[in-house]
Amino acid sequence: MIDHQVRVRRSADRLPREEQLAWKLATVATGTHDVDPRAAAMAVNRVIDNAAVATASLPRRPVAVARAQAVAHPAAPGTSGASVFGTGARVSPEWAAWANGTAVRELDFHDTFLAADYSHPGDNIPPLLAVAQHTGRSGADLLRGIVAAYEVHVALVKGICLHAHRIDHVAHLGAATACGLGTLLGLDTETVYQAVQQTVHTTTATRQSRKGEISSWKAFAPAFAGKAAIEAVDRAMRGEGSPSPIYEGEDGFLAWMLDGPDASYTVTLPEPGEPRRAILETYTKEHSAEYQAQAVIDLARRLREKTGPLEGVRDIVLHTSHHTHNVIGSGANDPQKYDPEASRETLDHSVPYILAVALEDGTWHHERSYAPERARRPETVALWRKISTAEDPEWTRRYHDPDPSRRAFGGRAVITLEDGTVIEDELAVADAHPAGARPFDRAGYTAKFRTLAEGIVTPDAQDAFLDAADRLAVLESTGLDTLFPAVDTGAVAACDARLPKGLF
Q: Which intervals hold domain MmgE/PrpD N-terminal (predicted)?
């Protein structure tokens, strides 16, 4: 691996493009050839994972809206177009990426990587799959693109913190997707370089989408980045340039969005010919909630065995990392995180709510645990408002441990009862984490897919999809169609028919 120093430069310096971060990211994309077998197997796992959560989200309103917008943009005559989950439609690839990306993200239930910043690298897959279908690429091409996108995404998340400046994490996603598309299509470094810069320029936004009253834009944001990356690649392939250098420029990304004119970062990228294995550092979710809540849900299930009835609780404090406390905990100072009328998107970013419900129910469900009647239950609200979080420097240190096997995303819960009894326990990582009690393997991903597809995809169609995913490396271009499980399109159409009309 090579450490690349990235800092702001004056325009008068005329920084050579070969020394710019966007160029170095592009060389990772254009230098990717053989795929490491373990990385390829994990990429298949994530294709299965994405299909699982996309299928379960099909009846949800934001997904229906994105789907309706997409089907209004059919593939141009003479082109293949790309599939949209839940329909038989073939649409223009950027719109397929929009609809499918929203479906994948809606339930906050697919993969994650946490380091200096945050990410959901599985968000790269919908735009890559859409372009692969549209351009007639093979399953092997798609795998190469996925592995390359994850490599770039993980490197940026490790090296450049966005959230400290309240910039949304999709800024890194857009660059990674542009690189993945470059690998998929076999583009030259110059074209990918221009596409990366265009995408970063157009997908930089604030984190207000994850603050206060969180709306459905949280699901749309990564889909927007994927759509923008496809459009940027199209323009770059036609010879169009971009704002340059997008990262290092004196009026650029680092200087004005992040640490300022004195900004300096280290981004570590693989050497030419070095295997791309960053995807192996990422992990998925067993529960539909913000990743830092995964271990908290598992911890709550364990604590229930010690607490007995919860009526006698005086207060509960979760001692945890800076991120958990300040983003999804009481340190965010968001009253909405304690509001029983809050949106689902807000509740899945409220660790006090999640801990309260998990303590009461001993389980977690992607729909029932967020139902309005569940959130309004009086005893739940009473318990919920007794829960707070506190930053613990040791948990923050463990969160940022450079060794992935020691990195911790959990916390220590201290329950104080009215009689003064104290019950406490801690959990470093979720059970499904690679270092957890029950790490997800192919069987885990398969079980998750079957659970979420139940009642939506027939058993035979489930089998057909899983077989296709398992054979992804040898699928011909037409075989990519089988990565969209057949669903009851009538039920989906009925859902769509209830939507108000827009422009398209």
A: 20-265
Please state, in angstroms and rounded to a whole number, the distance separating the CA atoms of residues 174 and 200.
6
What digits encode the pLDDT tens for the residues 242-292? Answer: 999 999 999 889 999 888 999 899 999 999 889 999 999 999 999 999 999
Note whether residue 207 is domain-resident. yes
Mean pLDDT of 352-368: 94
Please spell the DSSP secondary structure of 120-189, one letter per residue.
-GGGGHHHHHHHHHHHT--HHHHHHHHHHHHHHHHHHHHH---GGGTB-THHHHHHHHHHHHHHHHT--H
502 in a domain, yes or no? no
The CATH number of whichever domain residue 6 belongs to comes to 1.10.4100.10
350 and 226 within one domain: no
Assess whether 269 and 314 both reside in one domain.
no
Alpha-helical regions (H) of 20-77: 21-30, 37-56, 61-71
Average pLDDT on 152-163 reads 95
**DSSP string covering 426-437, please?**
EESS-TTSTTSS
| Total count of domains within the chain | 2
Model confidence pLDDT, tens digit, residues 441-499: 999 999 999 999 998 999 999 999 999 999 999 999 899 999 999 998 777 877 777 88
- Which residue segment(s) compose the domain that 60 sits in? 2-281
pTM of the predicted protein model:
0.90
Distance CA 309, CA 326 (A): 30
Closest alpha carbon to 128 in 63, 176, 169: 176
Closest among 92, 276, 353 to 100, alpha carbons compared:
92
